[in-house]
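Example 9 (inverse folding). The structure is encoded as follows.
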């Protein structure tokens, strides 16, 4: 889900879920059935004290007393569900089936103290490489390109957390430099999802963004994420699809197929130059134009800023660098027929080359490697329709989703191929040099550092640093970035 896209909601259907309060619903069960033994630091039974939420979550010496979102592997539920606890002869009644199920529901809902509270650890929808921690009136931002936050806490956050205040269902975030963002918040799915709506005084209306509690898997939850949304919202929500006959948004997680992988081959070199025209003007062979879109796992949402690397044989089936080619390469380019480039803001890409020749007994093919900003990688090859060599090629036989149909016009051969990556990463924002999903003075400082060569940017920083999309990083990009920040 791309939380940057502004959405105007035409309507919202109401949908309710059971809200579980630890103090009101769970602690009374422990008080009446458990703490005659599990009290005073749990001195009587395994150091497990069930007298308060903090002590319950701390657990005892036996292991994972509570595993949020996983009741079946939580020792507490295993014990009470097996009639092992309360122990026979303790004088305390066994828990009822309803009480056991209620505790399981609380654990599977994240084992929260209160469902509808902003405090805690949240993943913004569509940005799995970022986590927000709301704690003690401050919103901390943690960035991890691998998306693993298990061992990270506020000590790992970027500097200058954002102060926030809440009055009723309104949250105000101090974005620094005199900028205050105010939103109406609405919790759903037992408090596992919180939606931020533009304030009445904003220029925009409707939904601004959504966040999911850490470890909440809405694909496998009983909470129907999609059904309450209108057509516009449904169009970009991961895993949702609009039914034009029924005019409803429904979940569609299974009808999308990822682009299959293929062998890397022995002739990959990672230092190819940034360019989308990989064949010089005088390179022998039919001119070839391949275009498409890099998309997320749902086949709908795109991925911006994906790094695409391509390399191929020349018209005579010869690979430069590693072979002595007798034809082609009129410019004596070391990286002839090799290049790398990025998908644009909407995930689209296009590159120009020549139709490759036959390398030995292999069909015509172009090698391709895609790396998302979240470092998901797809290595594959693109083939062409009606190639007689495909019949006896093991790899081509497994590439039904990667065989391109070519059409010829006055400029050359044209083909299209969408690339579906195993990712729910929306990509990166132009100007967001530190990848914290916001544009601010820190990005300006880093952009200046790139221009002054104070540090070596990675490939994705090169992409987001070209704010005005002119293939250069210079003072004009700084001016453009500052204008964007001042106008937001």
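The amino acid assigned to each position is listed next.
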């Amino acid at each position: 889900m791309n939380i940057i896209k502004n959405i105007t909601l035409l309507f919202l259907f109401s949908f309710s879920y059971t809200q579980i309060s630890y103090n009101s619903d769970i602690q009374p069960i422990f008080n009446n059935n458990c703490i005659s033994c599990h009290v005073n630091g749990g001195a009587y039974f395994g150091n497990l004290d069930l007298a308060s939420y903090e002590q319950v979550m701390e657990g005892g010496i036996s292991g994972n007393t509570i595993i949020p979102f996983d009741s079946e592997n939580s020792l507490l539920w295993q014990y009470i569900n097996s009639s092992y606890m309360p122990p026979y002869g303790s004088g305390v009644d066994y828990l009822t089936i309803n009480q056991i199920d209620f505790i399981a529901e609380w654990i599977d809902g994240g084992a929260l103290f209160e469902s509808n509270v902003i405090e805690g650890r949240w993943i913004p929808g569509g940005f799995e490489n970022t986590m927000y921690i709301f704690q003690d009136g401050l919103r901390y931002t943690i960035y991890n390109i691998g998306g693993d936050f298990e061992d990270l806490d506020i000590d790992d956050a970027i500097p200058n957390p954002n102060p926030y205040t809440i009055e009723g269902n309104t949250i105000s975030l101090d974005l620094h430099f005199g900028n205050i963002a105010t939103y109406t918040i609405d919790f759903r799915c037992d408090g596992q999802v919180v939606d931020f709506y533009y304030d009445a005084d904003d220029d925009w209306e409707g939904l601004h963004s959504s966040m999911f509690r850490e470890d909440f898997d809405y694909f496998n939850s009983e909470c129907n994420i999609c059904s309450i949304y209108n057509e516009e919202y449904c169009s970009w929500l991961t895993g949702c699809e609009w039914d034009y006959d029924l005019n409803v948004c429904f979940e569609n997680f299974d009808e999308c197929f990822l682009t299959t992988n293929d062998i890397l081959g022995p002739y990959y070199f990672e230092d190819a130059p940034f360019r989308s025209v990989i064949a010089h003007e005088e390179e022998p062979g039919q001119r070839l134009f391949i275009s498409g879109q890099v998309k997320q796992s749902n086949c709908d949402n795109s991925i911006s800023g994906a790094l695409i690397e391509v390399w191929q044989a020349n018209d005579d089936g010869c690979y430069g660098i590693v072979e002595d080619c007798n034809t082609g390469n009129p410019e004596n380019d070391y990286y002839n027929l090799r290049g790398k480039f990025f998908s644009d803001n909407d995930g689209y890409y296009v590159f120009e080359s020549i139709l490759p020749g036959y390398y030995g007994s292999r069909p015509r093919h172009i090698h391709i490697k895609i790396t998302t900003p979240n470092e998901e990688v797809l290595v594959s090859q693109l083939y062409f329709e009606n190639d007689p060599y495909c019949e006896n090629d093991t790899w081509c036989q497994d590439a039904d989703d990667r065989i391109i149909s070519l059409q010829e016009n006055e400029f050359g051969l044209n083909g299209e191929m969408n690339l579906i990556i195993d990712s729910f990463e929306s990509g990166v924002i132009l100007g967001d040099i530190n990848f914290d999903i916001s544009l601010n003075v820190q990005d300006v400082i880093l952009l200046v550092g790139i221009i002054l060569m104070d540090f070596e940017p990675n490939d994705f920083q090169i992409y987001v640093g070209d704010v005005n999309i002119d293939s250069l990083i210079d003072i004009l990009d700084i001016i453009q970035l500052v204008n964007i920040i001042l106008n937001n």
